[in-house]
Amino acid sequence: MSSNNSGKKFLVIGATGIAGGEVARGLLARGESVRALARDAEKAQPLKDLGAEVAVGDLSDPSTLGPAFDGIDSVFLVTGIVDNAAQNGASAIDASKIAGVSHLVRYSAIGGSLDSPVALGRDHAQTELDVKESGIPYTILRTQTYMQNLLVAAATIASDGAIHLPYRDGRVGMVDVRDIGIFAVELLVRGGEIGKTYTITGPESIDLHQAASAISDAIGKDVNYVDIPPEAAQQALLGFGLSEWLVNQYLAYFEEFASGAADFISDDFEQLMGRKPLSVAEFARDHAVAFSGESAAV
Ligand SMILES: NC(=O)c1ccc[n+]([C@@H]2O[C@H](COP(=O)([O-])OP(=O)(O)OC[C@H]3O[C@@H](n4cnc5c(N)ncnc54)[C@H](OP(=O)(O)O)[C@@H]3O)[C@@H](O)[C@H]2O)c1
Questions:
Q1: How much is the pLDDT for 117?
Q2: What are phi and psi of 242, to 5 degrees?
Q3: Given pLDDT bands bounded at 50, 70 and 90, which one contains residue 295?
Q4: pLDDT band at 294 (very low <50, low <70, confident <90, very high)
Q5: SS3 category, 173
Q6: Is 213 within 8 Å of 223 (Cβ atoms)?
């Protein structure tokens, strides 16, 4: 496989997370040369086992970043769901500039704007601006909320056949994160279209009644969507030990979904990849074991 690779060296930031993990594994599967930035080397061991090089560094401490960026051609930049995401993005952009990287793919989110009521949305907009002003050839990838987030409902689907979330009847063009990985790998390996912003959603905008029905078909058991008040979701999330800041980000996103602001789809995935993105029915079938309560895997 290595004879077909692009000859480039990729740095994946956020490689121990959901989206970055898909990208790092996707690049490795194509025989590409991957360095994973990780705060904790142990967390990146599975990627090392697949052939990645691991550089220990923390975006919140720019002095740790130099060796991670040294010799890198292309960067995939994820900043986490953290309260200093914009500063972390700026640190990664600075380090990319110093290292002279030739392509930066910024992993962003739909709905970001400088006056967003969601702190993360403001941070995404700020980092997009910083990327555009950096002078580094860039591509921006904005994505919708993941179908994989539905896996948080696996426990209540197992216990009482229900998804409890405060989306009201809001429809969302939710996307399978596996498609995000496939799309990002394509952008990185091909070099992407410089200066372009891609918007990635699933193939249909669905409400949670439709998601419940797809899961029900996949596992052969009745599953219903139960709309709950935001306050109940807040208590449940705090009960899981999430910080107040993080819970507030989720609540703001839930309100966006409930209001219909995420009720749209984009055909950017199909244009580049030549097929429709995965549907919620395919997602549910592929995760039937987890939704049946036979596995806790997310
Ligand atoms: N969840 C969604 O539905 C969704 C949808 C669209 C866009 N997004 C965006 O996706 C991004 C989060 O990525 P994800 O979904 O893959 O979440 P994730 O699984 O939480 O991954 C976040 C990654 O960022 C890393 N990270 C966090 N702080 C860091 C730091 N200071 N230095 C170095 N690495 C750091 C984490 O490393 P550790 O393993 O060390 O924690 C992890 O690898 C956010 O920007 C979010 O807005 C999410």
A1: 85
A2: -75, 150
A3: low
A4: low
A5: coil
A6: yes
Q: Which residues contact 54 (CB under 8 A, 6 or more apart)?
A: 35, 36, 38, 41, 44, 45, 47, 48
- Provide DSSP, 205-239: -B-HHHHHHHHHHHHTS--EEEE--HHHHHHHHHH
Residue closest via CA to ligand 1's atom 3 equals 145
pLDDT at 4 over 80: no
Neighbours of 292 (CB within 10 A): 16
CATH number of the domain located at residue range(s) 146-173+204-263+278-298 in this protein: 3.90.25.10
Measured CA angle at 127 (ends 110, 31), to 5 deg: 80
How much distance in Å is there from the Cα of 190 to the middle of ligand 1?
A: 24
Cα(247)–Cα(234) distance, integer angstroms: 6
Q: Which CATH class is domain 2-143?
A: alpha beta
The residue extents of the domains of the chain are 2-143, 146-173+204-263+278-298
Position 16 pLDDT exceeds 80: yes
Question: Is 89 a pocket residue for ligand 1 (Cβ < 6 Å)?
Answer: no
CA of 265 to the centre of ligand 1 (A): 23
Instruction: State whether the beta carbon of 58 lies less than 6 angstroms from ligand 1.
Output: yes
> Phi then psi for 106, rounded to 5 degrees?
-95, 125
Q: What's the average model confidence in pLDDT over 262-280?
A: 97
Q: Say if ligand 1 is within 6 A of residue 59 CB.
A: yes
Q: Ligand 1 pocket, 17 CB below 6 A? A: yes
Give the per-residue pLDDT at 296: 42
pLDDT above 70: residue 109: yes
